[in-house]
Write a structure and sequence with these properties.
15 helices, single chain, seven-stranded mixed sheet, six-stranded mixed sheet, binds nicotinamide-adenine-dinucleotide, globular, Aldehyde Dehydrogenase, Chain A, domain 1, Aldehyde Dehydrogenase, Chain A, domain 2, 2 domains, alpha/beta
Length: about 500
Amino acid sequence: MQVYKNYIDGEWADAASGKTLDVINPATREVIARVPDSGPADVDRAVKAARRAFDQDGWPQTPARDRGRILFRIAEYIRRTAGRLAEIETTNNGKPLAEAQGDVSDAGNCFEYYGGLATKIHGDVLTVPDNAMALTLKEPVGVAGQIVPWNYPLMMAMQKVAPALAAGCACVLKPASQTPLSVMELTKGIEECGVPRGVFNVVNGTGGNVGMPLVAHPGVDKIAFTGSSEVGRLIMREASATVKRVSLELGGKSPNIFFADADFEQAIEGALFGVFLNQGEVCSAGSRVLVQEPIYRKLLDAMVEKTKEIKIGPGLAPDTKMGPLVSQDQYDKVLSYIEIGKKEAKLAVGGGRPKDLPKENERGFFVEPTIFYDVDNRARIAREEIFGPVMSVIPFDKEEDACRIANDTPFGLAAAVWTRDIFKALRTVRNLRAGIVWVNHMQPAPVEAPWGGYKQSGFGRELGPHGLDEYLEVKHVYINLDDRPIGWYK
Ligand code: NAD
């Protein structure tokens, strides 16, 4: 069994307490590794190392092109070790290997993209009154605390680390305690690629023992958090004591809207992929499928037939389309929502644990892809984030009904609209209150374009140029061009 350590100030270290946490394979429940069960003392060491790297050792002053080159080296390292990283991601998270390979590839893309952007950070010259000139300088925010969830363990972490390093920030990263392994493996490479000591630190442990102390630490300038809305609220409150910059990527209950004129074959696949990808453990899962009346029954029937063909199994098996959920907690939570759904709506397919699992996977956290239909948008399964393979199908009549139902949610992360009418597509895009809207697709998230929510799905953006801005402060420099006295005494 692998035993990992924290990575603090360029060294591998156990938790100060010596305690460890078990890490499991959710397809079998077998313990596959241990990581430090760290606490406030470990967080403090990491933050102090990051502070020194930022304040004294010259990381922010390192020429941007040299920082960029380090990021390119990390991207290369990811490509070189992609096979192993993807296998580790699947073994620890449960997702199908092909999806893990996509995630690892995106982590590499992320370092390449921000490596290139490092040399393009620039301010502006502004027109101001009087004989003066104003400049803006973009400067790194400082020490960033980064807290990530378990659904895209490597990608969520690296879409925070890459822009932070490009900007000249130092970081302290906390992986999710359920899924730390891909980050720990990549950390070996980050060390090898020449990131100076103290610039990048990883502290493992629980939210209460590591996450909260990181948020409260006065040496941290910014917290980037991805996770549940519930924890996001706690973080926002705690961060206010030291007025930290905060970016929050939270939950969703995203509408996937199908107009009657959508391409029918594309629609079936788009609806299933939109919600069953990654076992439905996707913040932007299209968990509310809104279907226009003329195709409602036909699309529902077609989705049910295709859902029966979805192959469930261990993520490493080549034909698996859906792996296990990540943990016992998540498994219990999803099954309890399915029971709620059975009382609130009609069950079309799924609704429990799959049969015929391989013997070694009988104890794994597998749940069938499940479709409820004739769902009222006020039902709990349509309002609350389930974060599992559960689709709620909701009928609608007119275009304005689709937008009203779609927007009737506290969340605003993502939405998708399927139609062959460009006018209707663009009107709908404009009327939806969400940070990402796809037209005739759902889920692509290229690293070059921003990602983030409206409403209670959070604020701030990751990826794209906006993701870099989150790690930059703007300094205004006012330059007087007049060498005469100011004239205050007159
Ligand atoms: P979570 O909020 O339970 O945990 C996320 C991270 O926060 C973990 O590292 C956890 O250890 C830590 N944490 C927990 N309690 C904490 C506390 N009190 N203080 C500080 N840190 C704490 O979320 P999860 O269950 O790991 O992930 C699922 C959630 O993440 C879903 O709600 C999902 O929608 C959301 N998510 C959002 C996005 C997005 O981009 N908007 C992406 C992925 C996941």
